[in-house]
């Protein structure tokens, strides 16, 4: 068996140790005589899996007690609708800071559920940076301000959490969740699809401050009603049991590696060396402002687009997989989430040097 280095943006690479543990526990989880996939979500075994995972996530992210942690379905895209449905009335204003493709989609979806969904800031031209916070045109009585802390496609990341005063800050952290320590208390709501940096697809994590729970619009589907889900420990209906279980193993793995501080340091090192390889070459380039470059998704262009196909083919041949950039920006994209070993980034950099030598 040989595993590749998988640079996919999502679903994405998972820690090999976790996969091996899942394999070992597949047929008989801890003497239950069945797999986690086959268990009742109401049984003591699964309830203990769910509770342990929730507590481990609370520990890892130092989530304050006055926040609910929900394990839902419907993806980050489901939350694009759930956010206005839970924390805005139909005639309210909501502010969207749009720094890439996902923020654009979130804003568009919100228009269905909130009367005045406003793009309060976006960069001029293409998505290669973050407009100064002082230039954001926020409404004084807005229900919330939505940001995308890491734009997965364009590779644009907030390096600091903006201060929006009394207006609750909502962050779609899908592709940067658990990538480094953050101050959860600066957000009203954090949400993330699991399949980027946490676990298998099918699970969406929502972390929400208690005072924002309990005001859902009357027509909010009950599976998206945070209050109903919180009251039911995220088991209003059958949850994504298997994804929740695997994510729990990833939380344990993250703890064993020293938690988010240690993981964040490794991520910073991985990203810095990859950007350095790009910046010190005249063959590769990255258009994003240095103060807004993503540590998780690193897009880069080759000097000549005609070489893209060859680059991908040769990379694949040496076990460096899924480097093709999103079609909207072209070129390449290396997603280097928590589970991408530093050796994978080193191998990519070596390959980039070799390819450049062979092509110039
Ligand atoms: C992948 C992604 C999404 C979409 O997630 P789904 O779980 O497929 O709905 C939304 N926002 C960001 C930032 C993403 O990276």
Relevant terms:
seven-stranded mixed β-sheet, three-stranded antiparallel β-sheet, 360 residues, alpha/beta, 14 strands, 15% strand, 34% helix, binds pyridoxal-5'-phosphate
Overall description:
With 360 residues, this protein is α/β, with parallel strands linked by helices. It is 34% helix and 15% strand. It contains nine helices and 14 strands. The chain has helices at residues 16-25, 44-61, 75-87, 101-110, 226-231, 241-256, 259-279, 308-317, 342-359, and strands at residues 5-6, 67-72, 93-97, 116-121, 145-147, 150-151, 156-157, 169-172, 189-193, 204-209, 284-285, 297-302, 320-321, 332-335. The strands form four sheets. It has a seven-stranded mixed beta sheet. Strands 11-12-14 form a three-stranded antiparallel beta sheet, covered by helices on one side. Strands 1-13 form a two-stranded parallel sheet. Helix 1 (16-25) packs across helix 6, helix 3 crosses helix 4 and helix 7 (259-279) packs parallel to helix 9. It starts with a strand and ends with a helix. Residues 10, 75-77, 102, 148, 152, 172, 174-175, 193, 196 line the site of pyridoxal-5'-phosphate.
